[in-house]
Amino acid sequence: MARNFVQPGDALTLIAPRTLASGDGFVVGGIFAVALAAAATGKPVEARRVGVWDLTKAAGAAWTAGQKVYWDNTAFNVTATVGTNMLIGAATQAAASAAVVGRVLVTGQVA
Known about the structure:
This is DUF2190 family protein. The chain is mainly beta. The protein contains no helices and nine strands.
């Protein structure tokens, strides 16, 4: 293996931009990740950039399986609305418009 390889990058230690609970989604620069533990604002937190997660969903719009989903960094939830929101992956199953949680394949792309 090349000597300059550091790590796969699926999990990273990032600085919490706000108080986070375990399982909260968050953004640091162009990176979306899910906190693996609780962390206070400004503290290091272990986070995963990929995988299938049950994440807080914006109510009011239904999702279909495979639909692209985005992170709303103002409401701190996943939405189907593009706008200025960050693409984070796709819904892995349908979710009703009234649902407050949706299942998301987080793809680890960088905005």
